[in-house]
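Morning F.,

Quick status update on the modeling queue. The single chain you submitted on Monday has been processed. Sequence for confirmation:
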Amino acid sequence: MSSRTKEAAKVCPVTGHPIDLKVSIDYKGARLYFHSPASIDTFQADPAKYAVGANYQLAVTGQAKQVACPFTGRPLSPSIPSIKVGVLDIGFCCRACEQTVATADYQTRFELVFGDHFSTGFAIVKK
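Structure tokens below.
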């Protein structure tokens, strides 16, 4: 993936606009970036509503790394093809998990990988 594509994917989880690196909060042991201070207020009022976008941003910015299958927590299988979710290639432990995402529509792919299962398959990168 080009660095230009990855930069374009760094968007505010509330507005979808480009992030401002000076506007951020602590989130899951990392930094979550926003478009404006008003976006922080909106996010903090209902973080669950914006969790998918927030978790995706952590992965896109390299603050979270996939360490296991997002559904089972089992090791990723090199024989199972990865699936593109946004700008990221997501791996899986088995064909059943891969097919769950492969057959989902674009938005549902994000919800499946970066929603409730995020902590199952991703870990915050400690710097």
